[in-house]
Amino acid sequence: MQKIKRLKALALFTLLMTGFMPIAAASQWDTYWAARWQKKAEQQDPIAQFNLGLLYYEGEGIPQSYQKALEWFEKAAALGNVDAQFNVGLMYYEGKGVKQDFKIALEWFEKAARNGDAAALCNLGVMYAEGLGVAQDFHTAMKWYQKAADLGNSQAQWNVGIMYYKGQGTSQDLKIAAHWFEKAALQDNLQAPFVLGLMYYEGYGVEKSYTAAANWFERGAELGNAQAAQSLALMYYEGKGLPQNYEIAADWFKKAAELGDIEAQFNLALMYYEGQGIPQNYQESFRWCKSAAKGGDSEAQYTLGFMYYEGLGTEQNYKKALKWYEKAAELGNIEAEFNLCLLYLEGKGTAIDYAKAFTLCEHAANHGDLGAQTTLGFMYYEGLGVSANLDQAIHWYEKAAKLGNREAQFNLGLMYYEGKGVTKNVPKAIEWYKKAADQGDKQAAYSLQILLETERQ
């Protein structure tokens, strides 16, 4: 089985638009209020027009209609209602109730921004940063983000941090980036605590501190950030900045897994498999491993293939083992490639195909897989999928044997004893038998005993 994955390095960030913000909970709206706002809206009351737009947008107390929502937002916006100006911009941006038009969205965000709307200022920054409805301009994007951030908008604070982190629209400065991420995090921005945790973990722009990293990961995890929960679990698992505790690690892996984090799903599968911090349960291990495998994790795909092969947590199924090994191999997983070789060599889940087995084995061997190197030696020795070649058999056995593979050590000893591919050399045979025997190879131990007894006679 694979080992628990380790904390990943900082990833690139995505600039996010500010979401649509209703002014009241849906439960407050009913048919009575819809009729009341309708009457006031028709009397040119901009607040009533805005609220009526919200009712149409949400479909509360009135049939849902983006077109009518936009109509009433535009009426309120024309009368200077800032929230309506923002929502008109957002609807053009998203193409709700109207054909998507970034240029018109930009115009409405500019109107709301001139009236001091922080969310509109932030969205202007996004549009300039992404080149939506306007030529891409990071310096102008930074200007708008900064204005919104100074007004306390947490999304803008997050984006200012990103700009300083990447050096876009300003000089790169990780220390200032961390400052703005912290401001956003203290306002419960979902991404910021996780990124701050990574910065403290790696010492980017701040003094390296596992304790501070764990604190920020925990804050993010409690907000529902899956990556923060996964990272916190790893810190408990490894005992970095926190007392090592497999039970708490398993608990946070489970929270992150349930939030959809693929690495956490795989790590949880491994903990169920090993019974670390949680009762051993192959069925649960299989379930979470399958979830991570479907999410595209090559190690999970490899492990799922192994569980199908062994019948762990599920019925044994060589065909499904083959399927998942193939998926993992396509993503570059060398262990999966070697196991595929064995399935083709043994005819499990597929017809025997020595040529295909050889191709897979050779590729895995050239990428350092000891089992593949040993098997490749065997295939050259027996002439399976390739012409027999004792020189090549010796070459691959030696390569794996020197790196500690006991099967290769035994086979190499046998070739020295029999004088196949090499000059017969009993001392060399004894040397390699002993190395394999010292690693618990029973066949090597038996052969060594017989050979030593023969030599004494």
Task: Report on this structure.
By secondary structure, this protein is mostly helical. It is built from 24 helices and no strands. Helix 3 runs antiparallel to helix 4 and helix 20 packs antiparallel against helix 21. The longest helix has 15 residues. It is elongated.
Sketch the major β-sheet: none
Secondary-structure element series? HHHHHHHHHHHHHHHHHHHHHHHH
Radius of gyration: 32 Å
Number of helices: 24
The proportion of residues forming helix, as a percent range, comes to 55-70%
State the main characteristics.
0% strand; 24 helices; 457 residues; 68% helix; mainly alpha; disordered N terminus
Secondary structure: elements and pairs:
Elements: H1 31-42, H2 46-58, H3 66-78, H4 82-94, H5 102-114, H6 118-130, H7 138-150, H8 154-166, H9 174-185, H10 192-202, H11 210-223, H12 226-238, H13 246-258, H14 262-274, H15 282-294, H16 298-310, H17 318-330, H18 334-346, H19 354-366, H20 370-382, H21 390-402, H22 406-418, H23 426-438, H24 442-456
Outline of the structure:
The chain is 68% helix and 0% strand.
